[in-house]
TrEMBL record:
It holds the Pfam family HNH. This is HNH nuclease domain-containing protein. Residues 18-72 form the HNH nuclease domain. SMART domains: HNHc (SM00507). InterPro entries: HNH, HNH_nuc, NA-targeting_endonuclease. It comes from Streptomyces thermocarboxydovorans.
Amino acid sequence: MTLVSNNRSLMPSRRRGKVRARLVERDGNQCFYCGQSFSEHVKPTLDHYVPHSLWRGWRQENLVLACWQCNLAKDDVLPWPLVWLLLAHHQEAPALAA
Ligand SMILES: [Zn+2]
């Protein structure tokens, strides 16, 4: 889980607002994972697509907006689409000679 309220990686609130605006422009005003639209009742959180433990920092390329439920469910693990991509790439690589 990589919520903005996490003390180990707090982003300044002014910057957070700008990043959120850019992410809404890029991905729409909805949860990246489940597609639920954000509203007064469904607040967005900033989530590191590749977990913060593996890719430090706040690069926009690695940030998505997620609802609380999806952010909590994803936890601090790699998302499955990325795992599948890595596995597919690995299977295409030539085998090492013995
Ligand atoms: Zn969601």
